[in-house]
Amino acid sequence: MLEFLHDTTTLLAGLLDSPWLWAIVFVVSALDALLPFMPSEATVITVGVLVHPHWTWLTLLVVLAAAGAFAGDCLGYLIGRRAGPRVLEWLRRSARGREAQLWANRQFASRGSLVIAVGRYLPGVRVSSMLTAGILRYPLRRFLPADAAGVLIWAVYAALIGYLGGATFAERPLYGLAVAFALALVLGALIELGRRLLARRRVAGLTTARR
Fold first, then answer.
1. If you write DSSP's letter for every residue of the chain in order, what string do you get?
2. Distance between CA 57 and CA 166 in Å, rounded?
3. How far is residue 104 from each of residues 30, 120, 129, 139, measured CA to CA in Å?
4. In the Cβ-directed half-sphere of 3, how many Cα atoms lie within 13 Å?
């Protein structure tokens, strides 16, 4: 694992002065909306570690990561809107896909904007939530501002985690990267735990109400 992190850090560090690095940030952030295995958050965190102590590069990182994520989400929405039945069939191929799609479908009925904004923090939910928004023809006037807020918060959060890791271990960026990844995993786990606890409370509340 450490060897992989070292190789990744070395590769991206060599691109710091190249426009290709920023193109990678944009493209990976965009593709993650359709391909859940794309390491968008890992990429942003890694670059965040490497750009320390340059605030201008940090700002550029946030802007391009948010812009890429926004473009990818809009593409996912458009695909869901244009090819609804085929998209549903694709989502339901796996158990996780079925679970994520059903969850997004239920949540859109009462809190669509919240799902769009925070879905990217939950495993597998970003893809299904954007496609579901399109399938359900969720109003663009509500989708666009909710998604813009969500991608901006995500980009700031991921970039700052990396940047702070780089600041803490200025002489050892690999350590900073490891700490930043660990922190991101912990935060993601806490968000997922909160979602599951809320879901259980709702189920318990409905069961009690029916008695």
1. -HHHHHHHHHHHHTTTTSHHHHHHHHHHHHHTTT-TTS-HHHHHHHHHHHHTT-HHHHHHHHHHHHHHHHHHHHHHHHHHHHSHHHHHHHHTTSHHHHHHHHHHHHHHHHHHHHHHHHGGGSTTHHHHHHHHHHHTT--HHHHHHHHHHHHHHHHHHHHHHHHHHHHHTTT-HHHHHHHHHHHHHHHHHHHHHHHHHHHHHHHHHHHHHH-
2. 13
3. 20, 12, 5, 16
4. 0
The pLDDT mean for the chain works out to 77
Closest CA to 47 of 183, 160, 179: 160
> Does the pTM of the predicted model rise above 0.85?
no
Q: How many CB atoms lie within 10 A of CB 202?
A: 11
The amino acid occupying position 32 is: D
| pLDDT of 209 above 50 | no
Between CA 138 and CA 148, with CA 142 as vertex, the angle to 5 degrees is 115
Q: Which two tokens stand for residue 38?
A: 């794309």
Decide which of 1 and 144 is more confident.
144
| Radius of gyration for the chain, computed over Cα atoms and rounded to the nearest angstrom | 18
pLDDT value at position 197?
Answer: 66
Residue 156 CA to residue 152 CA, distance in Å, equals 6
